[in-house]
Amino acid sequence: MNKKLLYSLLGLFIGLIISFSVNANYLSDWSNDDLCGWMESTSIPEYILDEVDKREIICYGGIEVSTLPESDTYESENGTAFPSPDPSLIPKSTPDSSSDYSY
Description:
By secondary structure, the protein is mainly α.
């Protein structure tokens, strides 16, 4: 094997090891809540998932929790039903008196 090729492969290998150790050190500065914030994302990077598994963190709602809350099930024989929103959270509609049209 050519010495230049051997040195190139060795350099590449050492570079990969350094790269992986830099990523590991980078995540060691992150708090558990920082990692849990990523768990709410639709696309979670693999290294974040690995770090959460390594630390054995339980995440719920973007923060670390000690246990998961018990959830109510809304499944029935006809599929999944979702609960109605709290009526106090629905804004009241008022007519726009400055408009020439109405709904």
